[in-house]
Write a structure and sequence with these properties.
alpha+beta, 13 strands
Length: about 200
C-alpha cells in the first residue's frame, strides 16, 4: 500500500459510519492533519488523475467511503476555472496535489439578480496546501492560472453535488442556475463511459 492509498484508508476510517465532516464523531482537524501529513507523490495518485483539455476540470472518483462521502481527484486544465458555485449544503476538504489553484470566494447574492457578485477574498493554494470550504463560508470559484495541469484531492460530505447537483452563479448579475447532478469523468481509475 502506497502513502496515497494509506491516506484514502485513513480518511475512510476517520469517517467510519458517520454522516460526514459535521458529525459529532468526526474530528475535522484529524482529517485536515491527515491530508497535511501526506506529501504529494504523483506516482501514487496518477491513475486517478484523468484530464480532458476540452473541459475546465475533470472529477475523478477515488472512494465513496461509507456512502456518505466522496473522495475525488480533480484535474484542472491550464487557464481554466470552475463557475462560481455552492456546495449543495455539503462540506469540502481539499488538498493540492500538483501545482497551484486560486480560490476566489464571494458573498451569496442578496436577492437582487442584477448586481455583480461581491468578492470576499482570493487565495492561492500551493502544492500540498489543505483548505476547507462550506456554504456557510460563501460561494467560490477555483481556477488554474498556471501553464500546466493542476491536481487536487477533494473530500465532500455528504456527496450532495454528485447526487443532487449544485447552484452556479453569474458573476455579472448574481443570477443562480441549478446544475443537476455533477457526474464523474472516471471512477476508481477507470474512465466512465457515457451511454
Amino acid at each position: 500500500m502506497n502513502r496515497f492509498e494509506h491516506l484514502v484508508k485513513e480518511i475512510k476510517n476517520a469517517l467510519g459510519p458517520s454522516s460526514g465532516l459535521t458529525s459529532d464523531d468526526v474530528d475535522v482537524e484529524d482529517l485536515t492533519h491527515a491530508m497535511e501529513r501526506y506529501i504529494s507523490n504523483e506516482q501514487e495518485w496518477s491513475k486517478y488523475a484523468m484530464a480532458n483539455a476540452n473541459m475546465a476540470y475533470t472529477r475523478n472518483l477515488v472512494d465513496e467511503g461509507n456512502g456518505k462521502a466522496n473522495l475525488l481527484v480533480l484535474v484542472w486544465t491550464p487557464g481554466k476555472a470552475s463557475p462560481i458555485h455552492d456546495h449543495g449544503n455539503a462540506h469540502c476538504l481539499m488538498k493540492i496535489l500538483r501545482g497551484n489553484l486560486t480560490e476566489t470566494r464571494y458573498d451569496f447574492p442578496d436577492g437582487d439578480n442584477q448586481r455583480p457578485m461581491q468578492l470576499k477574498s482570493e487565495t492561492i493554494h500551493k502544492e500540498n496546501a489543505v483548505a476547507y470550504m462550506a456554504d456557510e463560508l460563501g460561494l467560490h470559484r477555483m481556477s488554474n492560472q498556471g501553464s500546466d495541469y493542476a491536481v487536487s484531492l477533494h473530500l465532500y460530505t455528504p456527496p450532495n453535488v454528485a447526487k443532487y447537483g449544485c447552484n452556479i452563479f453569474n458573476p455579472k448579475t448574481g443570477e443562480m442556475t441549478h446544475i443537476n447532478k455533477c457526474g464523474n469523468y472516471s471512477a476508481f481509475g477507470q474512465r466512465v463511459v457515457k451511454v
